[in-house]
Amino acid sequence: MNSVVKVKGMSCQHCVIAVKKTLSSLEGVQDVSVNLEKAEATLTHDGPVDMKEVRERIEKAGYEVG
Q1: How far apart are CA 1 and CA 44, in angstroms?
Q2: Which of 33, 40, 49, 51 has the most Cβ atoms closer than 10 angstroms to its Cβ?
Q3: In terms of residue numbers, what domain contains 27?
Q4: Is the pTM of this model over 0.90?
């Protein structure tokens, strides 16, 4: 299963790495791909993912969901 999340505020590869790292540790997430140009993160997971926790982690890393 894949989920796509829009991430505002990313401007460089450091941002991409930070978002990927924070989302990769979520329970059930197998892979995270972050596209800087599209301003989005794609999560590959084997079951449901708590989107509230996804939002909280992105915001804690200093970015916005939207």
Answers
A1: 6
A2: 49
A3: 2-65
A4: yes
Whether the Cβ atoms of residue 8 and residue 66 lie closer than 8 Å to each other? yes
Q: What is the CATH number of the domain that holds 37?
A: 3.30.70.100
pLDDT single digits (tens) 32-57: 999 999 999 999 999 999 999 999 99
Report the domain count for the chain: 1
Residues 55, 61, 64, 66: what is their CA dihedral angle, to the nearest 10 degrees?
A: -50
Q: How far is CA 51 from the centre of its chain?
A: 10
What string of H, E and C letters represents the secondary structure of the chain? Answer: CEEEEEEECCCCHHHHHHHHHHHHCCCCEEEEEEECCCCEEEEEECCCCCHHHHHHHHHHCCCEEC
